[in-house]
Write a structure and sequence with these properties.
204 residues, mainly alpha, 9 helices, 0% strand
Amino acid sequence: MIDARNKFSHHFVIAVFSSLLVLILSFTETGLNRAVGAVPFFLLFFVMAIGPAVRIWPSLKKIPPKEFPWALRGELGIWFVVWSIVHILFVFRRRNWEVLEYILGMSPWAFGAFVAVFLGIILAVTSSKKAIGFLGFDNWKWLQNFAHVIWWLTVVHVIDRALLRPGFPSQDWLHWAYLIMVVIVPLLQVGDFTRKVIEHRKKV
């Protein structure tokens, strides 16, 4: 989520895009509850994929509209938090708002997802130029690196809820979409790391 150039127009685009995604998923066999749970992961996937993808293929930035949507990581991260909170509220509603009972009985994977949302809130609150000025760029950047922790905590939760269930391999297309996203992000990260090593070796 290392992008502090939050703009109202960008937030509007992500709000509309994510809301449409919820509606589209809701009108499939996914249903509203699962759609609201799926959209945060889609947004987080874009947050994690955009950075390494643009570094591997810089020409992506030349595709019009210029710098768009490649400059939306900050807004995507904030809306990941917004939809995650909505998802949590949906879960509480399904449990008849027995929040304390749910929290005390949650699995480690669900607890990890709660931690991910808590960290996401911290990153969202500090996703501004004022936060950079207050914390200092290096400290702010270190804090924003927790996006990787958020990703993997969320991945574990998704794998537990969607893939580690009776009847695998699943016949649910959404489960396979999750799996594809889970694979793509580390592949992009490895590709970006390899690119950096190759560039370094050329300078030696």
